[in-house]
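ARCHIVE CARD
SHELF: 3
SLOT: left
DATA:
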Amino acid sequence: MVRIASIQSTPEPGSPTVQARAQSLTMEGMMLHRPIAAVCAALLVCAGFAQAPAKKGQPNVKKQSYGKMPDGTPVDLYLLTNANGMEAHLAAYGGTLVSLTAPDRHGAFADVVLGMDTLDGCRAQTAYFGALIGRYGNRIGGGQFTLEGKTYHLPINDGPNTLHGGPLGFGKQLWQAREVASAEGPAVEFSYLSKDGEEGFPGTLTTKVVYTLTNKNELKIDYTAVSDKPTVVNLTNHAYFNLKGAGEGDILGHEVTINASRFTPVDSVLIPIGELRAVKGTPFDFTAATAIGARIETDDQQIKFGKGYDHNWVLDKTGAGLTKAAEVYEPKTGRVLEVWTTEPALQFYTGNFLDGTIHGKGGKVYPRRGAFCMETQHYPDSPNHPAFPTTELKPGATYHTTTVYSFSAK
């Protein structure tokens, strides 16, 4: 992870969202001084991301403005609602998951992912909140790799390494988006064409990602990509979860289970050293439910390198299909998150570089360890480790992976 800059998320004064909300004010309210009216409008916009009773009904997809790019290109925000009243908000910029609600044990919904109210706020933050990550998720050591005898040099943006595809990776690009039909629930497809040589990677890569908010209260993400040259691909989503609610304190009391008996230890700049190390007897053993905060300050070299957890777990998979990778339980609300994936590994990150300077949706502060990430993936730096599962994609082959984030309560 990279360190983050101080960001305050505020709606754009002339945005269509603010105008639509403002039209509902009474004539008397319209006569207020402009500064007061602007504050009222901003509060109304932020309320769209706040806790609210959810109504069951017909699954649907709505579209509204999220803002404009510096060149004036409009950016859409898609609002998905399933049959149970669960909502997901998805922006065309970065294919970003901006908001996701989930019910607690009493049926009350809350937004459980970190994000920004406006496009300007989303573009300015450097924590990758909810973004689609590519062309290569996680780190590539030294910003280079060799493929079929040729060495490729990538821009470095994380110490000596390339992180999440480089400074202009997929999470910083404007994707094409459209609603698609699905029997499982409302769905939106995002597509992006990454040209040969973009951020140093070979081959023109055509990527499609479909988000489906199923009527089983799952957020299902299907990733597909093809290339016209040999290349490397490792796609994921960088959602930051807090099952108490976004901006509701730290996540140290969340209880985590990871179905992995090994992890990949790293060096001081968080590049795997090539070993698959047993988790037994270490702070990385989450084979039984354990609070995140129970061992996060342990005097352990790996913990110190990551400033907490920021490591890759090798999943105990028995087949190529969807298998359960992890489960997280939040005792106060009863919310449960299950992570299912076709991928061989999981990056568990505990928001160690959040520092309280970002003000996210509704102006809420995002403190250190105020969220966790469960990034399904192939191993970090795989192109430089022949013994790791390959991330090479050849012409004529199709990259396809699926990850499901399933929500319930107890």
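SLOT: right
DATA:
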Amino acid sequence: MSRKHFVNIAWALRQEALRILDETTIESDARFDRQRQWDRDVIAMTNVCDGSNGNFDRGRFLVAAGYTHRPDGSMFPMAAPR
């Protein structure tokens, strides 16, 4: 895969994260389940992309897909439950 593919995949994952964050009509348990599934999907896609191209940058992809950095440098999904 190429950078163009990675950008498009990350964009799609981020859009889904934003959709989940904007959902106000579903119960909190269902929202939590959707957020956890989104997280698993992002990690799975990251692993596939990483295996397909030696120049793949996991951190850059995760940020583009909707993760953010904690002050300690670790990362967490922006769609994480509040």
